[in-house]
Amino acid sequence: MIVVCGSFGDLDHFLKVLEAYRQRFGRQNVFPDDEHMECSRPCIDAHHRDRKETEDTIEMRSKLMRVYFFEIDNADLVVIMNEKNGKEYYGVGTTMELGYALAKGKRIAFTRTPTNPNILSLINGQHTNNGLCQVSQ
Q1: Are 72 and 61 in contact (CB under 8 A)?
Q2: Mean pLDDT, the chain, as a whole number?
Q3: Is residue 86, in this structure, part of any structural domain at all?
Q4: Do the beta carbons of residue 22 and residue 34 sit within 8 Å?
Q5: Minimum mean pLDDT among 29-43, 49-63, 109-123: which range?
Q6: Number of domains in the chain
Q7: Deepest of 26, 50, 91, 134, by most Cβ within 10 A of its Cβ?
Q8: Could you give the CA distance from residue 91 to residue 10 in angstroms, rounded to a whole number?
Q9: Containing domain of residue 107, as a range?
Q10: Helical segments of the chain, H only
């Protein structure tokens, strides 16, 4: 199972990355699936489309994050889409997912080479000592 994590603030790019992994490894082997993306829509609109957050969207985001953690638990590879609008970027959710994946000892691929000092300190040693972290092709 492959789990793709990244900012929904650049949703078009996220969906392109997601689709590329689905085509390469099969839709059934890549998360998030269409159902998860559809459930995410109100949260995406509230957080990234300048609509007001509500108790419902905050509760739904919490449930969706728990699903992501469950999927990371079962993943063979976690892909971190660490870009937004053509620049290196790590949103709060993506950073949490990256930290969780690292804590679980998951293999991690980035869509671009990390240069952010905070992220480099988080993955320090992970990418050189045991081949855990890599830049995806």
Answers
A1: no
A2: 87
A3: yes
A4: no
A5: 49-63
A6: 1
A7: 91
A8: 11
A9: 2-112
A10: 11-25, 34-48, 55-73, 92-103, 117-123, 126-129
Residue 75 DSSP one-character state: -
| Residue 2 near residue 18, CB atoms below 8 Å | no
Cα distances (angstroms) measured from residue 51 to each of 43, 44, 45, 65: 9, 9, 6, 20
Residue 100: CB atoms within 10 Å:
17
CATH number of the domain enclosing 50: 3.40.50
What would the two tokens of residue 2 be? 């492959």
On whether residue 137 sits in a domain, the answer given is: no
What is the enclosing helix (H) or strand (E) of 80? strand 77-81
* Signed CA dihedral, 127, 111, 121, 61: sign only: negative
Tens digits of residue pLDDT in 69-111: 999 999 999 999 999 988 999 988 999 999 999 999 999 999 9
- DSSP-assigned letters across all residues of 28-45: GGEES-HHHHHHHHHHHH
In a domain, 118, yes or no: no
Is 81 part of any domain?
Answer: yes
Model-level pTM?
0.86
